[in-house]
Amino acid sequence: MSTGTPPRNQPTKARRSRVRTLLPLGVAAWVILEIWLLTVVAGAVGGFTLCLLLVAGFVLGAVVIKAAGRRAFQNLSETLQRGQSGGVEAGEQRPQGNGLLMLAGLFLMIPGLISDALGLLLLVPPVRAALSRSTERAVQRRMSAATQGAFGAAFQQARGDRPGGGTVIQGEVVREDAGPAGRGDDADPRPPIMPS
C-alpha cells in the first residue's frame, strides 16, 4: 500500500567527469585506427616487413627508456652530491626532465604505427622542449588557480590541525574485569588523562 509520499533520502547519482566519459572512447578509437593502419601497411609492404618494423620500434623504445633511466639516475646522484658539497651555483642550469623521453620510449614500445610516430616525434629535442614548456605553464596556471578553499583545505584536513599530524582525542580506557587478588576497580582508581 502506498501513502503517496516520496522516499526522503534518495541518493543522487554522481555525474561522471568528461574525461572519464571520453577517455575509453578515445582509447577504443585509437586501437581501431592502429589495427586498420597495420592492415593497410601490411598489405602494402608485406607482413614480414611490418613485423620487423614493430620489433625495431620495440627495441628502440627499450633503448630510449634505459638511456632516460640512466640519465635520471645520474642527475639524481649529481644533485645529491651538489647538495652535500655546498649548494647550486647561480649560473648553473637545472637538469632537463626525462619524463617525455621515457614517454617517447613507451610510445615506441607499444605495437602500432601511430604510437611509433608519436614516439619518434617526441625524440626530437625542439619538440620535446616546446611540449615541456607548455606543460609546465599549464601546470603553473592550474596551481595558481587552485584556491585556498579547494586544495589548501583538503591538505589541511589530511594533515590535521597540529604540526605533528593528526587530531588527538582525549579519553580514558575503562576495564570491566577485576584486578589481581580480587580487588575491584575502586582499589586503584586512575585519574583521567589531562591535556598537556
Account of the protein in words:
- By secondary structure, the chain is an all-alpha fold.
- 62% of the residues lie in helices and 0% in strands.
- The longest helix is centred in the middle third of the chain and has 39 residues, at 47-85.
- The model has no long low-confidence stretch (mean pLDDT 77).
Fill in the keyword field for this structure.
6 helices
* Oligomeric description of these chains: single chain
Mean pLDDT, to the nearest integer, reads 77
How much beta, percentage-wise? under 5%
Helical residue percent band = 55-70%
Q: How many angstroms does the end-to-end distance come to? A: 60 Å
Element-by-element helix/strand order: HHHHHH
Largest sheet: none
Class based on secondary structure composition and strand pairing: mainly alpha
Low-pLDDT stretches: none
- Count of distinct strands: 0
Radius of gyration: 30 Å
Number of discrete helical segments: 6
Shape: elongated
In short:
The protein has 196 residues and is an all-alpha fold. 62% of the residues lie in helices and 0% in strands.
What's the arrangement of secondary structure elements?
Elements (H helix, E strand, L loop, with lengths): L17 H28 L1 H39 L13 H11 L3 H10 L2 H21 L2 H12 L37
